[in-house]
Amino acid sequence: MAYVIVEGNVKNPEILAQYSQQAAATLAKFSGKFIAKGAAEALHGKAEFAIRAVIEFASVQAAKNWYFSPEYQALNELRELGMESRFVVTEAI
């Protein structure tokens, strides 16, 4: 298993909603699924980002295949208009 952790700050809620709906539709082909999504609360230290999502994949390679897919990459401009973000991938233990 692997997880893509998305961290973000909302720039435009309406555009972010459009992006989120379209991005979610790209996950099925890669067997990705959201396991957490929403506002994030820092337990220690300063939080740079206000929202988080965690997406589960079968492997790091599956996560990368999704992220770099033409279907998802087509949403980059919409994502950038809707939120400031950082995406990281990590392997489960």
Please characterize this protein's 3D structure.
It is a single chain. By secondary structure, this protein is an alpha+beta fold. The protein is built from 4 helices and 4 strands. The protein has a single domain (2-91), classed as Alpha-Beta Plaits (2-Layer Sandwich). Helix content is 34%, strand content 34%. A 4-stranded antiparallel β-sheet has the order 2-3-1-4. The longest helix has 13 residues, at 13-25. It is globular and about 30 Å long. The chain starts with a strand and ends with a strand. The mean pLDDT is 97.
CATH topology: Alpha-Beta Plaits
Give the N-terminus to C-terminus distance in angstroms.
8 Å
Strand arrangement within the widest β-sheet reads 2-3-1-4
Residue fraction in strands: 25-35%
Poorly predicted runs are none
Question: What share of residues is helical?
Answer: 25-40%
Counting structural domains, the number is: 1
